[in-house]
Structures are given as structure tokens and as C-alpha cells.
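Re-run requested by the PI after the first attempt was lost when the workstation crashed. Everything re-entered from the original request form. Ligand of interest: zinc ion.
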Amino acid sequence: MEEVHPKDKQAFLEEHYPFTPVVKLTDVFVCIHCREVIRVADYKVFRWSNGFLAICCPNAPACDGTVIDWMPSDMFDQ
Ligand SMILES: [Zn+2]
């Protein structure tokens, strides 16, 4: 996997984020793969072998979570 560094991370999100509404760089989620609180601004982008640009967990490549694994942090409040 090759890491890609978008010049404008918010613009990249608006183009590639798979859901609506598009999240903001200031939003915070919990990655269900590494269970860590992540800031959207810290996301990484990797180009998969099929050319797909994956928005990944800030802890990638140690964590294999992608944007679809980010859950609202309040879901984890007990
Ligand atoms: Zn993660």
C-alpha cells in the first residue's frame, strides 16, 4: 500500500468520504478496530492495489481500520 498525502484534507474528504454528511476535520470518532479515539484531521490515505483511495485510521498501517470503521465516540460512553 502506498500512502497518499492530500494537499487539502477537507477537500479530499468531500470528494472521497463514502457517507453524507461529510465529516469535518475537527470531528472525533472511535475506530472500532484499534478502539482508539481518533481525530478526523489525523486520517491517512492509502492507495490500494486496485487504485482505490482508502481513507484510513490515523493509526494505519498498524491498524487496518478505514473510514467505515469510525463510530461516534458517544456510542462508547457507558
Ligand atoms: Zn484504528
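Saved to the shared folder this time. Residues 2-76 form one domain.
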